[in-house]
Structures are given as structure tokens and as C-alpha cells.
Automatic annotation (TrEMBL):
Subcellular location field: Membrane
Membrane-spanning segments: 15-35, 47-71, 92-117, 129-149, 156-179, 199-221, 233-256, 333-353, 359-379, 391-411, 417-437
UniProt-recorded name of the protein: APC family amino acid-polyamine-organocation transporter
Keyword Transmembrane included in the entry's annotation: yes
Membrane topology type: Multi-pass membrane protein
InterPro entries, sorted: AA/rel_permease1 (IPR002293), AminoAcid_Transporter (IPR050598)
Primary residence: membrane
Amino acid sequence: MEKPQTTTEELNRSLGLWSALSIVIGTIIGSGIFFKQASVLDSAGSSSLALLAWVIGGVITLTSGLTVAEIGAQMPYTGGLYVYIENIYGRLLGFLSGWMQAIVYGPAIIAAVAGFMSILMTELFGLSAAWRVPLAVVTILAIGGMNLLDNRVGAGFAILTTAGKLIPIAAIIVFGLFFGHEDAIGQTVSQVQQSSGNFGVAVLATLFGYDGWILIANLGGEMKNPQKLLPKAIIIGITTVLVIYTLITFGVFRFLPADKIHQLGEGATGYLATAAFGKVGGRLLSIGIIISMMGTINGKIMTFPRIVYAMAKRRDLPFSRYLAYVTPKAKEPVVAIGFILALATVMMCFFDPDHLSDLCVFTVYCFYTLAFFGIFILRRRNKGKERPFSTPLYPWIPLISIAGGLFVLVSEVFNDPWGVVLFVGITILGLPVLWVVKEMDKRRQM
């Protein structure tokens, strides 16, 4: 695939390494590690297996990042996975990859994180559950409004929130490791429901916590030197998060017994914060976690509209002329941002965030796995050509990422077949949309 066609206004190529790293780390570390501890533990059945699930999820994510880094360094354009799939497999699968991210995955993941954040906000301010959706909507609209400005504003917010989220993370790790006395490692959960899942589902839940690592690729056309910066940001960012997540989980299990975590569910982290640091300290820690989630939402709002923009530039979507609009001064795809925010708002009103998060991971891993296979196709296609970045330990790292991807897909099919049918159906619905758009284009040209 040739470099996407340009129009009058283009995106700014202004992001450096620290901005890219902040977006990777800030986008990954959000609600998952704070709200998924109980669901991972329930599915795994014991704290030892839960900790192992977080580690395996991190290893799958790291091998995935190493594999995609080689692909991304060869295609440093705005659009990320959408561009990769089209280049490797052709226009049809490329379109479905972009459609899935623009219509299903992007809005759903923003809605899920905002939903988790609103749970903590209502607890912090003593509000009823009825306030959760309004708070979540107001938050994403405010962050979306900020992203209508120059991309350096969003990148600056990513740096600030990434630095801010390290405070609650460090507090939980230090307190759990040095002041926790439960030593829950090895404990089993005695009240787990039979329907809560299995170890595969536990790993799947952790992957929501690691989700977001590939989104920096959507900004490839806005990096100063994407061939070098993209692989570096992905690898350093994922490795950092893997270490942090393992330490947080270990700290939580040092402080709370397994049955207590199961009983508290999504409120386990909030309970730990209050128990560890008192009412005031707990509130401050909760504020830090909320800031962390805002940073994650910011990263996703920065990146997903770029997929819509890239697709609109190729006239793959209805109303492409408007969706590809970039403001003359700020160089921001403002209509694409509004489109993603509107879909996310709708999903927040109709879906539970926990269920939504699992289905998001399944949907995107369908195309991740295709991309992982793609590294072998590109190596054969570009044999003898120099690569900006080569995946280490080839072919073993890509093979591990493929195995991890297939593991995710099979686990979710068995765990929630009807949810899988729904999300796959929405993805396939993109085919008639593409046909209609292309037919309209043909008529205009006649």
C-alpha cells in the first residue's frame, strides 16, 4: 500500500520519545490494574494463579509489541493496525480492521475505562450509582474538547497524568510489599461461582489491563522519527508496565486475603487505599487513580480518531469528506474526534464496563493475531531488504505472540459465545457499508 494520499491540511509531526512513551504507558495503565484484581482472582481461583495470569498477560503483550514493532517501523503512517492489515492482506481485511477499531473497539474501550472511572468518582464524592453515566460522559467530553487543540496539548496532558499516576501506584506497591501482613499468595477463593471462568479467562481479563500498547502506532504520522521512536516506545513502555503490574498485584495480595478481594469485587483497590492510608489518604489515593484513568482516556481519544481520519482519507467511510477534516491551525481531526466520542457515549449508556472490556479485547485480538502472522509474510515479501527494526529471537517471539492471540480468542469463544457473535456481527456489518460507499463514489465519478 502506498503512503495514504494527502489533502490540503495534514497532521503535525511533532511527537518525540517522551511524548510517545507517556502515551504508551499512560494509555495502558488506567482502570484495568485497579479494577480487574477481583475478576482475575475469581477466574483463576487462587492468588498464585492470579499473579501468574498477570505475568503471562504481560509476556503475551510484550511479545506482541516486539512483533508489531518490526511491522510498524516499516509503515510509519497514521492509522496503525488499519494500515498494517491492509498492506499485508489487502483492502478488504484492512477496511474491516479499521471499521472494527472505529465502530466497535475504540468507542467501547473508552466507554469501559470511563465506566470504571465513574465507579470510583461516585464512591469518592458519596454519590449514588445513578451518577455514574453522567460523570463518565462529562469527563470524556471534557478530555475530548482538550484534544481539539494542538496535539502537543494532548501529549502534554499525557506526560502530566503519567507522572501523576505513578504516585498511587508507588503508594500501593510500597505499602503492600512492606506493610502488608496477609501474604495471600497461595490462597484459594472459597466462594467463587462456577460461572466465573477459568485460567484462560483470567489471562483475558489481564489483557484488558495491558490494552492500549498498540495505540501509539496510530500516531506514526505525527512522530518526528517513527522508524526509530515507534519500536523504542512500544518495547520500553510495555516492559515498564509489566514490572509495575506484577508489583501492584503482589502488593495487593500482601495486604488483602483472597476471599476479601473476591467479596469487595471492583471496590478492592478503594478499600485498600482507605485501609492503608486512612479516610483522607484513601481519598487522595483515589483521586490519583482517577487522574490515572483520565490519562488513559486521553491517550485513547488522541489515537482512535486517527484511525477514522486515515480511513476517511481513503474514502472508506460514509461522510469521509467531513471525517477527514483537519483544522488549519491546530491540525486536529475534530470531526473524527467527535464521531468517536458520540459512539463511546452511546455504549456507556447500554453496556456494563466489565463485560464490555472483555469483548473489546476479543475483538481487537482477531486482527492482532492476523498482524502477528503478517511478520512472516513481510519477511518473505521483503527478503533481502533492510529493516528499520527487527524482532529479536525471530521466529520464536512472533510464534509466542500468535499462540497468545489464539489463546485469547478460544478462551472468549467458550466463555461468552453470544457476546462474541454480537461483536463479530457488528464488525462484519462493515462490508455492506463499504459496498455502499464505493457504489456512491462510482456514481459521483460517472
